[in-house]
Hints:
This protein has eight helices and eight strands. By secondary structure, the chain is an alpha/beta fold. Strand 4 (135-140), helix 6 and strand 5 (166-171) form a beta-alpha-beta unit. One of its GO terms (cellular component) is cytoplasm. Residues 95-221 form the Thioredoxin domain. Keywords: Disulfide bond, Electron transport, Transport.
Amino acid sequence: ATTTTTTTTKEVEESASDDSSTNVSGSAEKESSAPVPAPETASPAPSPNSLEFDRESTLAELRAMRVKELRTECATRSIRWGNMFEKEELVQALLQAREAASHFSASGALSPGEVGALNDVQLEAELGTPASTPLLLDIYATWCGPCKLMAPELVKAAEELGDRVRVAKLDSDQYPQWSSKLGVGAFPTVILFGPDGKEVQRVEGAVMKADLIRLADLSLKP
Length: 222
């Protein structure tokens, strides 16, 4: 059975006093938002082969990038490139990093220590493919004040959780069908899924880093 917990923070309550669309629990009610666009037809689920790391096409993509672009991606992936003087060194370092990320994440969109933005197909892959780590998913709305408040806390939590937990976010305005499918009624809603893709627990309302880590730990305890 899934347990639903509502978490309130002082910061969210103060924010709520200035935002009529935010309730006292620090979450934005779904009904109070601007009209949600009609659900688009979901993209077909990828076949297992499409989730395999394509080394050749990735290598070609990296070699087509400029050195500045390669260095920027190295920085976002915490790869030290100061001693890499040849472009091919940057390419090979990123190729290795991307391949490692593909083993961590079924869709290849998530990397250890980072918050990855998923689309509908990628979320389907993450939940539908057995994994070695749980998934912490933030379902948010771009107009939601508490969602903006929690965003940097989610980043901090992801950095600390590292490769123990996949951390992702999903834009409910772009993919309303997933909000309906998961029974989301307020934003943000953070849902913890086990490695088997089944829901473990959820929290409605903005929560801080420590609470996000405690939530993730529920699926890490033996």
